């Protein structure tokens, strides 16, 4: 946590992940990738690994190292059929078995 939040946030402290090439919101097995589908991190080989366990869509946002916001919207719609819901964010698969 740090105190470099700005007027686009509503509190004094912010937390963030900067310069990660693969960021995504997931709900169960459906995910939305933050970046543009043309991002070099989304190579055919990497997408094959992700698509083996997740259904991907793209927000197609340009990535930036700016720290002053504003936050951008991501959304994933998933039917809940077995009373089980898992959701969250996944940040960067670099240096992992995912091949990123």
Q: What report would you give on this structure?
A:
The chain has 1 helix and 4 strands; from the N terminus they run E-E-H-E-E. It has one helix spanning 44-51, and strands spanning 23-27, 30-35, 55-61, 87-91. The protein has a domain at 23-91. The radius of gyration is 15 Å and the shape is flat. It starts with 22 loop residues before the first strand and ends in a 9-residue tail after the last strand. A 4-stranded mixed beta sheet has the order 3-2-1-4, with no helix packed on it. Helix 1 links the parallel strand 2 and strand 3. It is mainly beta.
Summary of the model, kept short:
The protein is mainly beta and 100 residues long. It contains one helix and four strands.
Main attributes of the structure:
disordered C terminus, four-stranded mixed beta sheet, 23% strand, mainly beta, 100 residues, 1 helix
| Rounded mean pLDDT score | 74
The secondary structure category is: mainly beta
- Low-pLDDT segments, ≥5 res: 95-100
Shape: flat
What quaternary form is this?
single chain
Please give the number of β-strands: 4
Strand percentage lies at 15-25%
The largest sheet, given as strand count, sense and whether it forms a barrel, is: 4 strands, mixed
Query: Roughly how much helix do the residues carry, as a percent range?
Result: under 10%
The secondary-structure element order is EEHEE
- Rg measurement, Å: 15 Å
- End-to-end Cα distance, whole Å, is 26 Å
Number of helices: 1
Main sheet strand line-up: 3-2-1-4
